[in-house]
Automatic annotation (TrEMBL):
Cited PANTHER family: INTEGRASE PROTEIN, TRANSPOSASE RV3428C-RELATED
Name of protein: Integrase core domain-containing protein
Domain Integrase catalytic: 1-184
Domain of life: Bacteria
GO biological process, one term: DNA integration
InterPro entries: Integrase_cat-core, RNaseH-like_sf, RNaseH_sf
Provenance organism: Microvirga guangxiensis
A GO molecular function held by the record: nucleic acid binding
Length: 372
């Protein structure tokens, strides 16, 4: 028997690049051998999170148990109407069928029926807590680094149970030839604002896609965007605010060209805070708003974002902005443009030699001669 459940990780106060990470762990365990797998989940307890985490666990294990037990997906069912609940149940049953597992659920609110994994949540979080203390920091450079850290902790726990896991592997079913879908599909239309709204979140996209219908695959932590059958790009998945307000996932590169035509629009943008790629840009805008006329502050800020985009110097420009602000100076756009302009000496002189048309005539005569 394999068991799945989710556990909240708020008590560990994990941060990614200094920002608090609101997340859960999807936790899988084999009841007999104690094999475990944990997957960092950014959203709530959803079918997508369950499908991705469970399949990752099965492929890491190398086989599938005869029975898979969950906690009835009560959190995933919350706020769903009857049709949506039935659709979720069908998808979960299809997932288990794909791996030849018999799905079972404990009764809602009766946690001890899932005790073989419920009680282990605390042990796993304690081990992760100890590893964080030894590491000396709860901050990670990015989500991938944190996920590697969790994988290493779980891997050490599994190493202690290697003999029992080896015994249970002989009783597992073989895996199918491929994974099944661990995402949801959606069709969206890109509006004139160079974006689309999905699940109460606005996502910006390149302006060249305005008016197109896109196919989106929703994963727990990302969106894969397709035009027809061609993959276009990947976006981080956003979440609506707890109070019901829309969320925003905005890349300044997608909207900078329209902002340059109307820089004063920066003042009224509902997603302005998400527009700045680094904290230094937000600091610079606040400083300029306090000391310059609003029109000048908006135009200068838009020009700074355009400079970061066009010269591919986002990080370097952010460091220079921080240095200027720490010294009590406002950004000097003219000097920054000179600083980040291309080095004229590094651009080679390219001479294009045109081939005379007589060379093509000679080739034609040679070809005709060979045919003859």
């Amino acid at each position: 028997m394999g068991l799945s459940d989710f556990t909240d990780m708020a008590d560990l106060s994990i941060t990614i690049a200094g920002q608090q990470l609101d997340h859960r762990l999807y936790h899988f365990r084999l009841a007999y051998s104690g094999f475990e797998h944990a997957h960092v989940v950014l959203g709530g307890e959803s079918y997508v999170a369950l499908a991705e985490g469970l399949q990752n666990a099965l492929w890491a294990l190398g086989g599938a148990p005869r029975e898979h037990r969950s906690d009835s997906l009560s959190a995933a069912f919350r706020n769903l109407d009857r049709d949506a609940r039935e659709d979720l149940t069908r998808r979960y049953d299809a997932l288990c069928t794909h791996y030849g597992m018999e799905p079972s659920r404990n009764n809602t609110g009766v946690a001890h029926e899932n005790g073989s994994i419920e009680i282990v949540h605390g042990h796993l979080k304690k081990v992760i807590e100890d590893a964080l203390l030894l590491r000396g920091s709860r901050d990670f450079a990015d989500l991938c680094a944190y996920r590697r850290f969790v994988d290493e902790v779980v891997g050490r726990r599994n190493a202690r149970n290697t003999p029992r896991i080896a015994v249970e592997r002989t009783a597992l079913q073989e895996l199918p030839d491929r994974r099944t879908a661990d995402y949801e599909d959606a069709i969206v239309t890109v509006t004139s604002t160079s974006g689309f709204v999905l699940r109460k979140v606005f996502y910006s996209v390149p302006s060249r896609l305005i008016g197109y219908r896109l196919r989106v695959r929703l994963f727990d932590d990302r969106l894969e965007v397709y035009l027809g059958g061609t993959h276009q790009f990947t976006l981080p998945r956003g979440r609506a605010h707890p109070n019901g307000r829309h969320g925003h996932v905005v890349d300044y590169r997608h909207v900078i060209h329209s902002l340059r035509r109307k820089p004063m629009a920066l003042m009224g943008l509902v997603y302005r805070d998400q527009l700045f790629p680094r904290q230094a840009y937000a600091r610079a805008f606040e400083a300029m708003r306090g000391q310059l006329p609003v029109r000048s502050a908006c135009r200068t800020m838009v020009d700074l974002l355009a400079l970061a985009h066009e010269r591919a110097c986002e990080a370097e420009l952010a460091a220079r902005l921080d240095a200027d602000l720490d010294a009590g100076r406002l950004p000097d756009l003219k000097s920054l443009r000179v600083l980040f302009s291309p080095d004229a000496g590094a651009v080679p002189d390219i001479v294009v030699s045109h081939v005379p048309l007589s060379a093509y005539e000679e080739l034609a005569r040679v070809h005709q001669g060979e045919v003859a």
